[in-house]
Amino acid sequence: MFRFFLKLIITLGFSVTSLTAFCQKNTATLPGNGNPLIPGYFADPTVRKFGDTFYIYATTDGNGGGHGPSQVWISKDFVNWKMKDMNWPTSNYYWAPDVINGNDHKYYMYYCQPVDIYGASATSPTGPWTPLLPDGKSMIPNYFIPGVITLDGQTFKDDDGKIYMFWGTWGTYPDHGCGVGLLNPDMHTFSKKAKIPNTIAKDFFEAPFMFKRKGIYYLTYSSGFCENETYRVQYAISKTGPMGPFVFGKNNPVLSTNSDSTVHGPGHESVIQIGNDFYMVYHRHNNPHSNGGYHRQVCADKITFDAEGNIEKLIPTHTGVGLLGKSTVRAINLAYKKTATASSFYNDDYRPSFATDDNNGTLWRPAHNDGTAAWLKIDLGEVKTIKQVLTQFEYATWYYQYKIEISADGLKWDLFADKTHNQQHGSPMIDNGDVKARYVRLMITGTEYPGLFKSIWNVKIYSDRAIQDEAGQLTVTGQVDSTRQKGLLVSFDADSLQKGQSVPEFSNKGVLGGTFVAGGKAPYVDIIKGKKALVFNGSQNFESTIQVPRILCGNNSYTVAYTIYSSELLNENPVLSWTAGESEHRGAIFGYGKNRDFGVAQHFGVSDLPFGAMPSSAAWHQIVITYDGVFEKVFVDGVLNNKENKMLFMQPANKIFFGSKTNKTLFLNAAVSSLKVYDISLPDSLVSKSFNIKSHDDIPVSLDADKLSYGKLTEWENNGSLGGKFAALGDVKPIVKDICGKIAVAFFGSDNLDFYKVNKDTTNNHSLIASVFLPDPVKYNSNQRDKNNLESWAVDHENSAGKWHLLVRTKKGGKVTDFMDGAKVIANIQFDNIFKTLFSKTSGGNGFKGAVSTLICLAQSLTPGEVAQITAIWFKNFHPVTLKTPDFVIPPHAVSPTLIEMTAAAHTAEKEDLQYYFQDEKTSAKAGAWSSDSHYTDFKAVPDHIYSYRFKVRDNFGNVSRFSAARTVSTSQAQFEVTNFDFSRQADTSNIASGNSNWSGVVGAQQAGANDNIYVADQLLTLKSKGSNWDGNLPYGPFIYKTIAGDFIAETEVADLSGYKERTVKGNNDVGLMARKAITLASENTPEALLQNSLFPAWNCGNLFTNFQSGQRMQTNTQGGWNFGRYLQIQRSGNIFSIRFSADGKIWNDIPGSPIKRDDLNGFPLQVGLFQSTYGPQEGFGTFRSFKITQEKKASAK
C-alpha cells in the first residue's frame, strides 16, 4: 500500500484528497497495483522469511500443468522480486513446493508430483538440493494415511521446535480428509500421523497450511475446484496442538472470488507473520481468465482477527500489502505511466500502456505469435539519463531474444543493448548503460518456446542502477523460435482424381512438399453427393514423408480446413494429427465426431474442443479450425460454431497423419474431398468468405450399381449433387445382379426409372456417361462412325453383343452427340432407349434391354478429346478382379456353437482395393454386407446345424468375381467344452482354495475390502470394493478367474452396477471381464499384462476397453454413458484378442480398438474372469447374471 501511495505522490503530484478518490475507484488494471506480487504465472505459493529475506516457492504455472523448472522468488522488501533457478527437482511435475529451516540448521524442501511427496536438503534456502531418499523415492506415497490422498505437503514448526507436515487433496470423498504427521529428526519419516476428517475440516479439498497466533493453531486449507471460481480458503482451529482436535472456523470461507471476478478462484494459501501482523499469500487466476485455470498469479493480503481470535473475512485487493521491509529500489521508474506505442496489440485487454503501468496483472501482448519481430516504444516526455532498463517478460522461465534502442528525437536510433542472441531466462532481465534519450524502443526478435507471444508485463527505466546483480541463468535448450510463417503447408484436393481410383499416395501441393503415403490398404475415390472424395473405411490412413515443422509445435498458430462427408455421426472420427503422446494440452488431433469434449480438436485435457452444435450427417460440410495462440475457433460451412480460450504446448510427432490418430488406435470413417493446413490463423472474415461451402452442381447425377443390394430394385439413390432417388416404374422391376464380371442393374425392356428433376436439369448443356452391357449388337450404317476416331479397344458392330461398353451422350446448344467406346456414332433407337429408360416416365414399351453398372451426368458438354480420355480410363479399369479363383485361406470353422469364422484369400499382391461378400449357400438371405476385411465372423449361427459358406470379391470399379467353392461347417455342440459358472450357490466361490470349484483363483478378496466382497445371492454373483484399482497400483479390486490355456471365448452378462437403477454415476466404478497374464510369486514385480472389457458409465464412457501392457494403459470407449451393451465378450485366437459388446447377447460389436494383437501374451495361459474396481474411495459393486467359457475340446483348461 505504501508503495502505491508513494509512487502516485512522486510521479503525479496528486493531493491526498484526489488520492483517496482514486483508490476508491481502484480496479484490477489500475497502474501501480501491488497484486499480483510477482510478474508471471506461478501457483501454490509458500512464503517464508529466512533472515532478512523473503522467499516465495511456487509451482511454475502457465506451461500446461506445472511442469517446472524449479525456481524461487527472492525479495528484501516484499515488493521488488527477482527469480532464481534451483537445481532440484528436475522431474516432469513441480507442484506446491515448501521449504523450512530444520533444527539441524539445514533447509528442507518438499514438493509433490501426482499423489507423491518428495524431500531434499540444502545448506541455503535456494539449494543446491540433495534428495533425502535415493533413486527418486517418495517419502509420502499415496494413501500413506488411509483416507488421505497424497499431495500438497506443507510444514509447520511449533514453538517447542517440533516440526509437523500437513498434506492432502480431494479430501471431499467420504471418510477422507487432511493428513498430519510429526516429523522425526531425519525430516522424512514420522513418529506420529493422523487424519483430520472432512467432517471437521469441512469441504477440505487440498492445500493445508498451519500457522499459530496467541496460542491458537489455525489450519487453513482450500475448498472448491482450483480451475474455477469455487476455489476458496477456509480454516479450522485447535487450542490444543497441531494435531488437534479441531473445530470448524467462523466466517468461512475467509477468502473467495470477489463480486466482479477480477479476483477469481483465490486459494492454495500460505501465511507469514511480520511482527504482530499476519499476511496471506495465495494465487488467483489471471485477468482476463485463461481457460482451465492454468495461468495463476501470486497475491497477498493482510489477515485480520476478531477479539476471540477468529479470522475475519478477507476482502481481496488489487493494491496488495506494499512494503514489508525497507525498499531496495530508491530510484524513480522513468517509464511509469509514460506513453507507450507498439507494433500491434492483440486487443484492448493487452494494450501497450500496460507495459508501463507497474502492474503485474496487466500485460502488453502483440497481435500475433508468429516469427516476426514485435516492438514497444516508450516516450519519456523529455530527454533523460538512462542507466538501467528492467524488462519483465510474460514468462520468466523461458528466454526472449531482443534489443533495446534509444533515441532523442524518435528518428535516429542507437543501440542500448543487444540480446538478439540471448539464451538467458529470468525476471527481471537487466540491461545497463549510460545514455541520454527521450525514446526507448524494445524490439523482441525471438522466443525460446515456439508460438510464445512476445509479451511484457512491465518495462522499468532508471537513471541509476536500481538492481546491482542479474537474475536468471543460462538455459540448456539453446533453440529459439525464430521461424517464419510459410502459409499453406499441406494441400489436398480430390477433384483431379478419377472415380474408383485407389490412391496409394499423393503429392502434397502445399509448401512443405513431400508425399502422403497410405499406411495400409489405400483409400479410393468415389463420387458422393456430387463431389469427388477420398473414402476412408475406418482402417486406412496416409502418413507424410516430411517431418512435422517446428511452426506447428508449441503454441504456434494454425488453420486446419477439410470438406467432409459422414453418413453417420461417430463419437470420434480423426481426420488429421501431427503430435505425439497424450499429455495435457500437447495434442493436435482434428476430427469430425460428436464427442462432447473433443469432437473437433483433441489436445487432451481442458483444451479439447467440441462442436457447439453438431453438423448434420449424410451431408457435405466444410470444417475450419483456427488457432491464433489465444483462441481456438471452429467454423462449420463458414459460420462460427464454437470457440475457446487456451494455450497449447503441441509436441510434434515425426510425421503428419491424415485419416487417423498418430498412434493409429483410431481411423477415419468418412469421405474427404479437400484438406488444407496453414501455419497462420486465418481471419474470421476470410473463413466466412472463402471457406463457405457452395452448391456443387458439376455432377448432378452419379449412379453406382455396386452400392445397391442384390435383388429387385425399387429405387436407385443418386449420389450426385441433385440428390433424390430414381424410382422404378411398372410391374416388372429391374434386378441387381452380377453380369459378365460387373455388378449391374439389369433391364428387360418394359421397365424404366423416373427421375423428373434430371429431365429439367438436362435441358442445358450436359454429358451422360453410362457403363452399359448390350446383349444384342449395335446396328450401324456404313457412315455411322468416324473410323479415324476409333481406338484399338473399340469394337465393330458385329462383335458388340454380350459385352460391356461405355456410352457417352453430350449436349451442347441443343446438339446431341453420341459416342460408343470413344467413337462417335449417329443417334439410333438403341441409344435413345437406354436414356429414355433412365430419364423418361414412359418407354412406350420399347425400353432398354441390357444392364447398367454406372451412370454419371456432368453439368458440362465434353469434347471428343475428353470423351476419349474418359473411355481409355474406363477400359483400363475394366478387368477381372483377381487372376486366381477365389478361395478360403482359413476355411469356415465354428469357434463356438453360435459363432463361425472364416478368412478369404486376400490377393493383396494383385490389388489392394478389394471387398468381400460372404454368403451361406444354403440360405442366400444369410449373407454379410460387402466388407474390406477378408475375415468374416457370423454371429447368427445356431447350435447343431450345418452351414455352407462361399464368397466373392469386388473392387472399387464394380468389377466382381464369381463365387468361390462352398465349404461346409458344423456347429455341433459335441465339439466344444462349455463351462457355465454356477451362481446359485456360494460354495462355488468359497471353495476355490480347496479345488472344489470351477474357479481357479481369486485376487483382491481381502485386499480390497471386507470378506464378503465376493458373494452369491439370488443366482447372481456380486463383486464389490472401495479404494481398489486395476491400473497397476495396490490394492487390487476383486477378480475371480479360471486359468485357461489356448484359444477361448469368455462371455458374461452384467445384471447391475453402482448407480445403474438411478442412472447416476457413483465414483469411478469399473465392472466387467478380464484376461490377465498370471503373476507368480517369483515375478511379483512384473508389470501387469491384461485386457479388460468393462462397463464404465463415468465420463460418459459406456463400454470400455482397457489394453494394459509394458506399463502403458490404453483405453477406448463407446461414449455411450448408461446406454451400454451389458453383454461382454473376449475372444482369443492365438495372439489376437477380440473385445466385443452386445445389447442382447446375439449381435456382437467390436469395441473401438478391437481386435488387438498382443504378442506378449502369445502362448501363455491366462487368468480369465470377472473383476470390479473403484479407482477411488467411493464404494462400488458389479453384479453378474452369467459367465461362461467356450473352448474347442482339443484345447485344455486348467
Helices and strands in order, then pairings?
Blueprint: H1 2-12, H2 16-24, E1 42-50, E2 53-60, E3 71-75, E4 82-85, E5 95-101, E6 107-113, E7 116-122, E8 130-131, E9 154-157, E10 163-167, E11 177-183, E12 190-197, E13 206-213, E14 216-223, E15 232-238, E16 247-248, E17 267-274, E18 277-285, E19 296-303, E20 339-342, E21 374-393, E22 400-407, E23 414-419, E24 424-425, E25 429-447, E26 456-462, E27 473-474, E28 488-493, E29 505-507, E30 515-518, E31 524-528, E32 531-537, E33 542-544, E34 558-565, E35 574-579, E36 589-591, E37 601-602, E38 620-627, E39 631-636, E40 639-645, E41 652-658, E42 669-678, H3 684-690, E43 701-704, E44 711-712, E45 715-717, E46 725-729, E47 735-739, E48 742-748, E49 752-754, H4 756-761, E50 766-774, E51 803-812, E52 815-820, E53 823-825, H5 829-839, E54 849-858, H6 864-876, E55 888-896, E56 899-904, E57 915-920, E58 935-938, E59 946-954, E60 967-970, E61 976-980, H7 987-990, E62 1001-1003, E63 1014-1017, E64 1020-1025, E65 1039-1044, E66 1048-1057, E67 1070-1077, E68 1090-1096, E69 1102-1109, E70 1112-1117, E71 1127-1133, E72 1136-1142, E73 1148-1150, ...
Antiparallel strand pairs: 1-2, 2-3, 3-4, 5-6, 6-7, 7-8, 9-10, 10-11, 11-12, 13-14, 14-15, 15-16, 17-18, 18-19, 20-21, 21-25, 21-26, 22-23, 22-25, 24-27, 28-42, 29-30, 30-33, 31-32, 32-42, 33-41, 34-38, 34-42, 35-36, 35-41, 36-37, 38-39, 39-40, 43-54, 44-47, 45-46, 46-49, 47-48, 48-54, 50-51, ...
Mean pLDDT across every amino acid position = 89
The fraction of residues assigned to DSSP E strands is: 35-45%
Overall strand count: 76
| Low-confidence region ranges | 1-26, 471-478, 781-795
Q: Specify the biggest β-sheet.
A: 9 strands, antiparallel
How does the overall form come out from the CA principal axes?
flat
Query: Please, how many domains?
Result: 6
Q: End-to-end distance, in Å?
A: 78 Å
As a percent range, the share of helical residues equals under 10%
Q: CATH topology of the largest domain, what is it called?
A: Tachylectin-2, Chain A
From the 3D coordinates, which CATH architecture of the largest domain would you assign? Answer: 5 Propeller
Number of helices: 7
Instruction: Say which CATH homologous superfamily of the largest domain is assigned.
Output: Glycosyl hydrolase domain, family 43
What CATH first level of the largest domain would be assigned? Answer: Mainly Beta
The secondary structure category is: mainly beta
From the alpha-carbon coordinates, what is the Rg to the nearest angstrom? 37 Å
